[in-house]
Every structure is written in structure tokens, then in C-alpha cells.
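Mog1p/PsbP-like protein structure dump, as promised
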Amino acid sequence: MSQRTLFGGAISIVLPTNLLDASDIRQVPDTQEVFVSRDSDISFVVEILERVPIQNPDEAARFHFDSLAHDNDAQSHIVHEVQVPSAQNAALSEGTPLPIILDGSQAVTKFNRTTADDVRILLALFRIENKNVDLVLSVNIPTVAEDGTAVPPSGIESTREVFMVAASSLRVLDFDLFV
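C-alpha cells r here:
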């Protein structure tokens, strides 16, 4: 694990050293930072989005998960759990807001395959109200894959631990990024 800077140094995060910056191999939108594992089909995405006009944090996280399912053309999707930081802990947070954590699954057909892959989605939503931004960290973990690249249960749990480190370490260093 190592500290990385994103968006020209405006955000820092701790991520595994075995992740490749996807922009080195393909086009990535300016509003995203995408990292892919060298050892599996696991990917980490940090995306800057316009803040959705939903006040309830649980519902806002579900909205972003549903939007991701739509973008993935998911055949089905389900939310397993949403963890919202307590108001007391959120008040103690300086600068970068505490994330809302969502754990869900999507059935996604990829690359003209005949069977949908089951993909575990871990999502951390950072609501930056004064900049009208929702910053989303998501991790895609294939748990059932037609091509045999599924991550075993032990890998799912270790990736969840890595995701929690990434989510808790993410810091906005320069809020002018969101102008």
C-alpha cells in the first residue's frame, strides 16, 4: 500500500502498489481516476460527480449505486448494506467529509459474453456540500465470471479491507479542484 495523489495532487489516497493507472493504457475521463489490478479484474475508481439533490445520506449512496448499475447495463442489482457515519463523527471530521459506505452486487454482462458476471461493488460517497460535489470511490470485484477470472472469497474480504483503508485515507487537499 502506498500514498497516491489524484487529480494533479488535489486528492490523496492510500492504494495497493500493484494497481496500474488505467490512463496509461486507455482513455479515462477527466472526472475520473481509474486503477486496475495487475493480478485480477478488480478495479478502483474515484469519480467527481455533481451533487445529487437528495439529503438522506443512505438514499444518496443508493442513488449513485443505481446510477452505476444503469451505466453498467446491469441485469440486476442489490444493496447489501449502507453504513452512514454518525452525525457526531461527521461533525468531528475536518475538511474531507466522512464517507457513506455501500456494499452491493450487480449482474453485469461484459464484452459480448453470454452469461452475466456477478460483481461486488463497494462504494464510498463523500458529500462535499459547499462545492456541490459528490466524490465517489468505487471498487469492482468480479465474484462469478464466465471467463474464470472471479475473485475467491478470501480475495473479496482482503479487497474489502483495502477498500476500507482507501476510503478512510482519502483526503481532499485542494478544494479548488471542484470549481
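The longest strand covers residues 117-128.
lmk if u need the other ones
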